[in-house]
Amino acid sequence: MTTPTNQKITATAHTNIALVKYWGKADQSLIIPQTDSLSLTLKAFYTTTSVVFDPRLSSDTITFDGVLASHDDQEKMSRFLDLVRAQADVSLRAAVTTVNHVPVAAGLASSASGYAALAAAASRAAGLNLSRHDLSRLARRGSGSASRSVFGGFAAWHRGTDDATSYAYPIDEQPDWDLGVMAVVLDQTTKKISSRTGMQRSVATSPFYPAWIEANEQDFDAIQVAIKAHDIESLGQITEHNALRMHALTLSAEPGFTYFNGATLAAIELVQQTRQELGGRYYFTIDAGPNVKIIGLRTDLETQLLPRMQAHFGAANVLLTAAGPGVTIQADNPTGKDLNS
């Protein structure tokens, strides 16, 4: 049994973009994926969450951006807090305050930063001092991609076969090359088909799903070679092909569906056209939403693609960022003690 800190613990975690994606679970309850995956953590998009376990509370209280969480969100996050309570052997209820700097449910993986931050803050507030390995396993139980947001830079998620063997780990946390990422926000409304539903339908009904798993394994191995070599062309080509294959699963499901809209297709075409005309090194990817992310050499992104994207979609909807850090944890006390290890 651990002893809760009786302090408010605050954690910040950044979202990530999957370059080699996971799309489908082998175990729904434990969130064990069908494939390994690899991502890049982003500097500009992040979530800050504070947690305190309070003996005066009769139930968990959860606030998002100054507003009390919906009943469904409250229940989901309380179930996650139950995992922390069970691991720490405590029964106290928690007050949770979350501030999101990520458009929610629009394909920018706000759940990744959200559950990574919640896992870090809640576990430390409950008196646990988890290794990053074990923190990634805990975060995975809230959202699969959250396991990777525990780490900065390039991170991978080993699919494993059970709770103990499915975890994320760092590949290159501080990339020392001229990498940039452009996010083109095309729609911030909640998507009509959740990632969970989309995955289940794709796994169950797409005739191409077995081929997806085989191709993903090849992409996972090849992209690590590209990262080590700082080979942006190979990395980018793998990223694009992997994204298009994932979205082919949604189109080939029964009934078929897509996360794209007209603006998504226009953004893809603009990337391809500009790259062909100017010889730029930048490549698109799309997760479970309409928004487009583009990874490439920062110099090329800034000088070639950024002006065209801003002119087409509006400057406020195009953001250039870089690789981001892993999760950080701090106690809210007068000494400002840093709890990162």
From TrEMBL:
A Pfam short name: MDD_C
Mvd1 C-terminal domain ranges (all copies): 182-315
Taxonomy of the source species: Bacteria, Bacillati, Bacillota, Bacilli, Lactobacillales
Family, per entry: Belongs to the diphosphomevalonate decarboxylase family.
InterPro entries, per database record: GHMP_kinase_C_sf (IPR036554), Mev_decarb (IPR005935), Mev_diP_decarb (IPR029765), MVD-like_N (IPR053859), Mvd1_C (IPR041431), Ribosomal_Su5_D2-typ_SF (IPR020568), Ribsml_uS5_D2-typ_fold_subgr (IPR014721)
Protein name: diphosphomevalonate decarboxylase
Enzyme Commission identifier(s): 4.1.1.33
Residue ranges annotated for the Diphosphomevalonate decarboxylase-like N-terminal domain, each copy included: 13-168
GO CC, alphabetical: cytosol
Organism: Secundilactobacillus kimchicus JCM 15530
UniProt entry keywords in alphabetical sequence: ATP-binding, Lipid biosynthesis, Lipid metabolism, Lyase, Nucleotide-binding
Gene Ontology biological-process annotations: isopentenyl diphosphate biosynthetic process, mevalonate pathway
GO molecular function: ATP binding; diphosphomevalonate decarboxylase activity
Class of this enzyme: lyase
